[in-house]
Amino acid sequence: MKPNDFIKLMERAKMYDLTQPLSIHTPPWPSYMPLQIQYFKRIAGAHMGQGANGQIIKTSNHVGTHMDGEIHFFGSGRTIGVVPMREWTGPGVVVDLSKDLGDYDLYEPELLMKRADIRKGDILIINTGYHRYAWYEKKSDEVRYFCKHPGPGPKFHKWALAMKFKWIGVDCGSADHPMNTIIRNWHPKLFTEAENKLAGNFGKKWDELFPIDEYYQVMHLKLFPRRLVHAENLGGEIEKLSNKRCWLGFFPLKGMELESAMGRAVAWLP
């Protein structure tokens, strides 16, 4: 393809922003430092018309739409900045499970493959529907968003590795099920709710279906050493891409020391 033909192709392409708005009101992952923004200079604060606005930003990396890096849970992993841009972009699919899932539910490969055309080597984005409870939405519910969202079932992580996905994205607080994280200890009442629902659906207690030694933070601890990372807190125009194949990209800062990084998630369609 000639350069001008490529430019015309991109001019015609429709771009979708899958990023949540970022604000000092954006909740971080529970217990992490929230975003803080402070002006250290203002336009009116200098002589001879040389004033300018300047800000200092202080935050953890796990606020709003962000990519978890390998080194976040794997000490020998790569930082965000050393990962080549080609690993952040590529063909993929946005799978819409929003009508299939409710509080504490599980999703497995069979359901995802039933809903969309998923191919080996894809970027896989999962719309659980829980972006609707993000901080900026009318139905905002921070506890539901972080502590009750659906998560992967027991077979998901091995399937994800076998599919050789470039990265995975979710529209909720974690790529892990919240009850396979420290949240189960922080919220014992919610854990009881989740376990009761699991028993009703599968006839098993939580630790029977998810032995803690194997499934605690499985999406982080088992996948990051294999260079399969994930973006969390996606949203934006995600519902416009339900079950569609598209070109996807995540654009983090090239931070050579960053264990994770906020960024923009973008999709393109013809």
For the largest beta-sheet, the strand count, sense and barrel status come to: 7 strands, mixed, barrel
> Poorly predicted ranges (pLDDT <50, ≥5 residues)?
none
Radius of gyration: 20 Å
- The outline comes out as globular
Order of helices and strands: HEEEEEEHEHEHEHHHHHEEE
Number of strands: 12
- The number of helical segments is 9
Any idea what the CATH architecture is?
3-Layer(bba) Sandwich
**N-end to C-end Cα span:** 16 Å
| CATH level-4 homologous superfamily | Putative cyclase
Proportion of residues in β-strands: 15-25%
Give the domain tally: 1
Average pLDDT number:
96
Biggest sheet strand order reads: 4-10-9-7-5-11-12
CATH topology assignment:
Glucose Oxidase, domain 1
Question: What class do helices, strands and sheet pairing give?
Answer: alpha/beta
